[in-house]
Write a structure and sequence with these properties.
The protein is mainly β. Strands 2, 4, 5, 6, 9, 10 and 11 form a 7-stranded mixed beta sheet that branches. It has a 4-stranded antiparallel beta sheet with strand order 1-3-8-7, with no helix packed on it. Helix content is 0%, strand content 54%. The protein has no helices and 11 strands.
Length: 113
């Protein structure tokens, strides 16, 4: 069982930046970040494979960047030009090489307008 430990959430003004990080306790094929705002469904924000292939939600393209340090089993989400609509609980997600699916505990990101 892989454990995911997240950090980096908080409160920021609109236009500001935050960086989230998520460290896995074991080897991971693909890392991703999802978010869930109150009253809404959880949605994919960005994800990245071991090989560096990335994809992003249209709403964050050009503002968010996902990256990973394979040696540390850590994924980062750099969030720039934050907007009030980015306010949500952000969840780290990881897929193992045999199709396992893991979730972090979630970290709150609040953007004040």
């Amino acid at each position: 069982q892989v454990q995911l430990v997240e950090s980096g959430g908080g409160l920021v003004q609109a236009g500001g930046s935050l960086r989230l990080s998520c460290t896995a306790s074991g080897s991971i094929f693909r890392h991703g970040w999802y978010r869930q705002a109150p009253g809404k469904q959880r949605e994919l924000v960005a994800r990245i494979t071991t090989g560096g292939t990335t994809n992003y939600a249209d709403s964050v393209k050009g503002r968010f960047t996902i990256s990973r340090d394979n040696a540390k089993n850590t994924v980062y989400l750099q969030m720039n030009s934050l907007k009030a609509e980015d306010t949500a609980v952000y969840y780290c997600n990881a897929n193992g090489y045999s199709g396992q699916n893991y979730w972090g505990q979630g970290t709150q990101v609040t953007v004040s307008s």
